[in-house]
Amino acid sequence: MYTLSKPTTCFLDAITSPQELKRLSGRELQDLAAEVRQEIVANLSKTGGHLSSNLGIVEITLALHKVFESPKDTLLWDVGHQGYVHKMLTGRRSHFKTLRQYKGLSGFVTPVESDHDAFIAGHSSTSISLAVGMAIARDHLKKTNKVVAVIGDGGLTGGMALEAINHLGHIQRDVIIVLNDNEMSISENLGGIAQYMKRIKETFFYKDIKSKLDLIEDRLDQVQLTPAVWEMILSVKKQAKEKFDTPGIVFEKLGINYSGPIDGHDVAAVIAAFNAVKDKSTPQLVHIITRKGKGYEPAERDSIKYHGVSAFSLEPPLTEKFEPVQPVQPIKAKAKTYSDIFSEALIELAELEPNMVAITPATAEGSGLVRFGKIYPERFFDVAICEQHAVTMAAGMAKAGLKPVVSIYSTFLQRALDQVIHDVAILKMPVVFGIDRGGLVEDGETHQGVFDIAMLRAIPNFMLLAPRNATELRNMLYSALKKNEGPVAIRFPREKAVEAENLEPFALVDYTKWQTVQTINAHNADKPPVVLLAYGAMVATAQSAMPALEKVAGQVTLINASSAKPLDAALLRDLLADSHAKIITLEEGCLSGGFGAAVLEFASAEKMRHPQNKQADVFCMGIADHFVEHGARSILLNENALSAEKIVEFVKKVGA
Asked: Which end of the chain lies in a sparser environment, N or C, as judged by fewer CB atoms within 10 Å?
């Protein structure tokens, strides 16, 4: 392991494009790998980002660019957060200090940045399907480029990857699959595929055992041994061989030629493996063993903790001095997030609800369910990167009498929309969805949780809730499990929880009844009254705008609209009846089909029922019809007109 000091980058300084790699020897590439690791650690100490995966894939990336001709040859990255080394080698090193910063480099690969990024990548298990499609197009257009799909063993557990392998084995197109096997995704990989990969890796060690046994046998040829001793030696060899699978037999049976396993930190071995399959015309899978966090001791010890890191959280600290993006504050007790509150509530409820079970698709760490799994291992199910299976399995559990809670990120729930409709909603299965990362996040277009409100609101039988604070989240979860009447989605942001201390015991609540949070009496009597209908996390943002609104508006009422479906019809009718009022909806989600659209639809229906009555005007604030880039949530809220300042400006604009 190298020491953490000012990075020495004499080789890396010479790399302005992948072509420079062609001139380097194997030894020089190994030295370059060490420099790249220094650069990654140095940069991520300032910007944060995905650390462990990028430290593990350095030699694979160098070998890919040594053997193949990017961008002529198509390199497809699964997930894409392991693409930092690729970015450095393809002309973006000078911008690396802007990684994951607003208007800076994306934390994932994207063709918007470079022709070397063949496709956008943010979700897992997509690269092989993309490769199959691009190989078919290549052959149809009579081109000769290679198509290479890089995928991790975690991504390989995803259904789409297995579907693609099944198809590729049938059509026998020229596609190279590089399997980066480090036994990890966000959390530890689980399931039959992961166990099979583990058995393949054991053959890696069997080869070493067999070679030692052969050496002993050769030396023993020179001495006289009894038949019983020879029989014992042969028996040991046979048992060692029978213990391990033939490497890659499953892939071979599916029509994919297998080679490996290969030491992924021996750059010469990886280059040799790529050269061996480069000119093949049939599907190839190169199985490479790597260590997540390679070269940085804390990340090697705990690759889950260092999967993604915040700026200045690296241990031990670098000796070189950096100008911090923000002043470094004294270390304080870590504030609880909504994920923490949700997972703690689940643990408490497990004792009250013996039939409750928790399910997650490979996000146990991110959603805070690891502790639940340790306390209730028989009631915790991590199904790997299989969102569709997670949802349908939950439906089956609910039908058979359990109370399943699916903990899933908003952006990953998109992958299971058919299962949500077909298997949960139609039969009104009582499945509770804890939708984490609802709203804006720093990771960019592929991870923004802004579509779940509109997506689920369109589905009959669903109830959509969003808490404004920690207590409300706990009570929503408790009430959904107690009532057990149908599918309920509870949405919360990737943020520190509001009012997370001194929490009260669970209480049954009618979460379809909205509550008035605050009213500011009219100081500008000539101004019409304003009603802010804030959904979920927007309540806190709206509260911070109230002091400024007091100076520019008349009476302002802030309402916690805790349920986007159903709406609080009785309250809405009363609000609409004041024809002088201005009703403004606030949501951290897309405007198309979202919470505001629901209020407008309600107002339209009311107008149809009572066409002679005048109604209050309704205005909507939310995410416009575009994909939101990466950046800090505070910046993104302001850029998408959802900050406290923008709320004040909007109230002025509508004439309140």
From this structure: N
